Inverse folding.
């Protein structure tokens, strides 16, 4: 299809498609003569993935390119999950390095208490330390004992995630499988956050209603 | 303290402080003469909260102002949680309205299956429908049956969240309580996402190791 059809089918403006081509997010089309380039269904699918990662996943163009590069390597879904993890942006302000380092032992303690096998180089360890530092500075302390029940819930969610990936493992299109891995990791994050917000609303309303019953005036 | 001391103590450049003052994110200081304005500890705390909401929570300046406005209303923590929820950005592309509407019944079905009391006007219903639309377009279908176990985990997390807020309810500084509510809602989201990523890494490594044992070559 021509770039105008690709634009229409994917709902992406032609200028944006050209930008993604220049930035290497989208593989080049097949040139047909000097002025015509043809694109395929894989370009439509890739544009939807880029849109999902940037608009819904909140990734920058650079981070999106890292994730797409990881996806293009022909790995199995579980290995891809690791590569996607390490491509994700986990910004830690360089000026804050010392303060973040102070929180690192709390993260180590949590990982040990959970018996988790997580690389010492995992960027998520530092990102978690940075988040705990923010909370601590705002006077909100979450110790290992407070975090453990959340970690148990995260472990249960991760089992569901990896079950889903393993179910996909016998499919044939490994690139599509790798895309699924990225989607399950990244796009389920907002889904889970939204479910928690709705559950918080329910929990708050339920307790407020209970507090208002005649037995509890 | 002078603005220079506020800058040093909070680690925020003077220009950024002035920007926050202009944008109404930071309450004005106390003028002392024509050229001197004094700031207090509440400004330090507020700057840390702004930084945490923007840098770690990923909120825009406009959304941060909405959340801070909600916090400044003297409500109880549970009510504040609701106000914070509704101030959060849940962008749904106007061009996508019809496609999002198509997913709304799936969200309704999930809320009904969980027996949740969630307002029909909750912005998180539409945001969830938009996320499900993204997944569906990428060929990743999560039906009600797939989402229910995640919703159960979200409900358990929300119980922990609201327990924590209720524990704070007997404290005296209601503004500080309201800040805690915003922090627990917003800043725990990256913490939970990071715990899930670490748990995914652990789960993947554990299964890969299991698959490599001599009994399962």
């Amino acid at each position: 299809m021509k770039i105008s059809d690709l634009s229409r089918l994917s709902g992406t403006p032609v200028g944006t498609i050209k930008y993604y081509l220049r930035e290497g997010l989208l593989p080049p089309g097949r040139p047909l003569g000097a002025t015509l380039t043809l694109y395929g269904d894989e370009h439509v699918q890739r544009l939807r993935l880029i849109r999902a990662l940037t608009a819904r996943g909140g990734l920058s163009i650079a981070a999106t390119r890292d994730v797409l590069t990881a996806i293009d390597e022909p790995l199995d879904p579980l290995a891809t999950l690791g590569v996607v993890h390490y491509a994700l942006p986990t910004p830690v302000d360089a000026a804050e390095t010392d303060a973040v380092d102070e929180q690192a032992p709390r993260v180590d303690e949590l990982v040990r208490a959970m018996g988790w096998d997580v690389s010492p180089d995992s960027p998520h360890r530092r990102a978690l330390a940075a988040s705990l530092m923010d909370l601590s500075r705002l006077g909100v302390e979450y110790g290992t004992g407070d975090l453990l029940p959340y970690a148990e819930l995260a472990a249960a969610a991760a089992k569901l995630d990896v079950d889903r990936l393993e179910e996909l493992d016998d499919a044939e299109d490994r690139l599509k499988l790798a895309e699924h891995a990225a989607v399950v990791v990244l796009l389920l994050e907002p889904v889970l956050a939204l479910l928690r917000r709705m559950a918080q609303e329910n929990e708050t309303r339920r307790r407020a209603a209970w507090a208002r019953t005649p037995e509890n005036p």
About this structure: The longest helix of chain B spans residues 144-168. Chain B touches chain A through 85 residues (CB under 8 Å). The CA atoms of residues 101 and 129 of chain B lie 7 Å apart.
